[in-house]
Structure formats: structure tokens, C-alpha cells
Amino acid sequence: MNIEEFDIEEYVKNYILEGKDEQSLSQKEYDYYLDKKDSHIKNVQNWLKYFNCSGKLEVFSFENKVLEYFPIEKFDEKDISKFIDHMFSLKDEGEFIGNKLISNLSKISIDSIKNKTEERSYEFFYIEKPSKSEFSQDLDLYKNKKRYLIRKTPLEVKTLIKGCIDELEILKGEKVLSNLSYVVDYVADILLQIFNYWVITIENFNYKEKIDVTRRIELYLKEYKKSLIRFKKNRKFNTELKDAVSIFVSFLEKRNDYGNYINIFKKLEEEQKDEPEFFASPRDIYRVKKEEMVSIKEQKKIITEESKVDNYSDKLEKTKEIIKIFSQYGLRNADVNAIFDRKVYFREIYLSNSKFKRQSKTIVRKYLKNIQKKKNKGYSTKEIINSFEKESEYRFFREKISRGYFRETCDIRLYSVKNKLQKKLYEVLLDTLLIYDYKISIEYLQKIISELIPICFKHIDDLLETIYGNRIF
Prior knowledge:
By secondary structure, the chain is mainly α. The protein folds into three domains: about 5-105, no CATH class; about 125-275 and about 440-470, no CATH class; about 280-410, no CATH class. The chain is about 65% helix and about 0% strand.
């Protein structure tokens, strides 16, 4: 029903009186009703304003209010009342809907409010908690298998596609709603790996050729969005309220997750914009390859690119300590003795004059301090490496290091191209969740896998045809 047609006064009356007839009330009960009535009506009116555009937004944007993407207008008066009851049940004692609860749903922050070492969760929002996702327990295994194919055996691209489609088909049959956020994460990981290894950083192709492929990808994502819009317009909505809320929880989780990455990209690109000379591609005399050996005398010159650095030796030792930790515990393929890795880490932590340099230095200082404390107390390896105070700090630091490697191995202009492509993919995947149908969402994820991967592979296919006279697709 149209949300403007919802009878708020009748809802409030039933909510406060709990179904009792006004005529049967005592004077005390009636006075209580009159005392609460106006504030509750105003409260619900203000809250429903967050849904004013619900159903009218064609595609997802991080800039829009998050509750605009819950399809409240698709439900009848009974279900809308049930949903508002649910919102009231979630409010903090003494607080109305529309204040802290709405703020917590809307903001993008991956750090848990109660526990800084864990990611923020939206499970509190379920009306009825769905079955636990078994797929989530093996997600890293699935990801690693596909990453190996993408990085090591790209010519097995058809095996890659078929394997993913078959896995999604099994999940589609299970209809476990809590799978959705993990399935989207899985598909995103596969496509982002392909963007990076087959399109952005691949050797033997120049900047213009890579831009050509990214434009083809963007064009496909645009058409994919159009197909989603057409489907949603023509679809007969028959999802139950509890299931719609469960899917909305998956949407909130991925919006929060992806939104955090988008915010990090913005920070790093702002840093590049503020100091274009510092973040430009390195001159040939300062370039160094992964396995290249350089004399101790030349190392400082290459690492700093002859910029003046105070306390260089002390900062280099801290840099080596970070690399050792990351490589020792398997989080990064980095070698503490390699000047290539030292340069990337050192520059991203200690160089540049931006405010983000101070942020990086602070994160590293606190991290090393926390690690030492945990070592002294005999913590496990896993607990030692997980010594960042906040998940957001770890992500920010990790992305800075990734940007550093990008600068050393690829055209730095392509870093922004990669970020733009990643943002567009995130938006499309969130749009896929907003179908509000578990089965159809997975079918659309199968569609993007089967159609987009061959587009990403096109230039490789062209090269194969030139060299060997045949293509894979």
C-alpha cells in the first residue's frame, strides 16, 4: 500500500491500548492513552519519512538514506503495523524510533560498538533469525580455490565459470537467507580478482588497451542495472515480511562493508590529489623489481627517492618489523629482506606530508605496541597478528600498502580506474540484493559471472588468437 495511506492514528491507538476498546478503559488508562497518543503519532510520522522514496529509487547509491531501500510500501497495513511494532521493540529504553536506532542503521562503520576487535553486526534487526549459513564457514576455501585459478591458470577460465555457477546453483536450492551476504562477498571477490589480474595489472597490454576493457566492463554493468530495473518493475512482489527483513540485513551488512572501502578509496585518492608529485609513478632510477638485490648504499636512495627523512634508520627498523609480522603470519607475501617490500611499506607509512601519513604512523605505533604486549603475555599467533585496535584501521593500512604496490608495479593512474570499477561493481551487487527474492538474486549473480568474465577475458582471448590462431570464447 502507499505509505501515505497508512492510518498512523489507528495504529498508535491499537499499539498503546493493545487492542482494547476505548469504552472499556478506566479513567487512568484513558488518561495514559491521551498522554502518549500525540507523541507516538509524531514519532511514527517522523520515522516513516525515512521511507518516502521507498520503491521509487531505481538503483542503489551510497548517497541515499539506507531505509529508502526497504520496500515497506509493498506490504499491507497489517504487515506495516507489524514492522513498526518490530522497530518499537528494538528501541533503547527511553528513546524513540528515529533517533539512535535510525542513526546506527544508517551510518557506515565496520567497527563493532561493543567489541572493537569484531566487525559491526546487524543481526539485531531480524524479525525471525534465518538458518545459519553453512557456506560462510567454507567461504575462504571457496575464495582461495578461485583465486588460484585466476592468478595461476587463467586459461582455465571456463572451469572457473562453471565451478562458480554450479556452486551458486546448490546454494540457490538451499534457500538459506543468511547465505546472501556471503554469496555476494564470494562473487565480488572473484570479479575483483579478475579486474586486478586480468585487466588492470596484467602485463603485455598498454594503458589504452586496459582502459578499453574497463569501459566494456562499465558498459556491461550499466546494462545489467537496466535489466534489474526492468525486472523489479514487472515483478509481482510476494516476499514475506520476515524474509524481506532478513534480506535487508544482508543488504545492510554489505552496504556497510563496501561503503567502508569506498571511504578509504576517497581518502587515498584525496592524498594523491594533494601531493601529485609524491604519488606519481616512480622515475626509472628509483624503480626496483620484486626479487632485485640492491647494495645497502643504494637502498636509502631508492626507498626515499632522495626525499629528506628524519630518523630514517629507526623508521626502517619499524618498517622491517611490520613486514616480518605480516609475512610471518601469512597475511602478506612480503619479504623483510627485499628492498621492493621495504620501499612500499616505508613510503606508505612514513612519507608524504598529508594528514593520512600521521594516521598511518599512529596506527603502526599502536599496532607494534599491542603486539609486544600480547607477546609478553603469551597470546596465540592469531591473537598477536590481530592487534589492530579497530578493523577500520587494519583495512585502511592494508589498502595503503596495496596502493604502494600498485605504484611500484603498475601505472598509478590505473589505481583510480580500479577504484572506480570496484565502486560500480559494489553498487550493482547491492542492487542485486534489492530484488528481495533469494532465488532470483542468486540467478542474477550467476548471470553476472557467466556474462562479465568473458568480457574481462576478451583482450587475453585476442592475444591467444594472434599467437595460436584460436580463442577460448
